[in-house]
Amino acid sequence: MSKTERGTALVTGASSGIGLVTARALRRDGYRVFGTSRKPMPDTPDGIAMLVCDVTDDASVQAAVDEVLSRVGRIDLLVNNAGIGLLGGAEESTTAQAKAIFDVNVFGIMRMTNAVLPVMRRQRRGRIVNLGSLLGLIPAPYNALYASTKHAIEGYSESLDHEVRTQGIRVVLVEPGATRTAFEENLTRPDRPLAVYDAARTGAETLMREVLTTGDAPELVAEAAVSAANVASPRRRYTIGKVAGQVRFIRRFLPEAFVDRSLRKFNRLPG
């Protein structure tokens, strides 16, 4: 397809932040774009059709996919962006809360993917871009459950990519580092906070706000998502931003003890 007619893209979590910026970038690149949000929203002035979709609900996911198919008959690109954060000590969350974040961040991706794979298989063509995170590559004190979901997405995406390549489908990871969005304003808090973690939790939240203030622009993530969507032979993962690239290198190639000390220093934890 030409640049003026790339195909049809479906972007989850497109009401704000990285999802909205990515949806707009894809629209400018020539895609017909459908975005999703949990609550009804009007279509955007720049031509993004908004659909209601709760990624934790099988019926809602299927209804959104069916709506796209009823309008245009195909889905060429799925961008799995919808997700939630959780900041606090791992011990401070019940298993019910842990299940809830996995239901959005991991099983939500699986639901969306399972709904579009039959469509892409019939087309013999499709691309799935999963929004991971730098925290899918490294430990994340006081973000253990969120990081766990991102580590899970890494393993799921790479494994699935090997399974569906012969069907004309590729699965790609985009791994942002700290990105300037309102992410911290939408963080979930622990459902059983413990006093022993109060000071550390407050410190972790302060650090997060500082890091996000100087983080990468969401447009940088959107550019990577567009590239990952369009290139004929995509890389397995696109790590976004200078800092994220440096951390990925350190994690892969430097001694574990050095990485451990560096991580604790960055997170302002005692040695």
Automatic annotation (TrEMBL):
Residues 7-199 form the Ketoreductase domain. Gene3D superfamilies: NAD(P)-binding Rossmann-like Domain. InterPro entries: KR_dom, NAD(P)-bd_dom_sf, SDR_fam, SDR_oxidoreductase. The keyword Repeat does not apply. Keywords: Oxidoreductase. The keyword Electron transport does not apply. It comes from the Bacteria. Belongs to the short-chain dehydrogenases/reductases (SDR) family. This is Oxidoreductase. It comes from Plastoroseomonas hellenica.
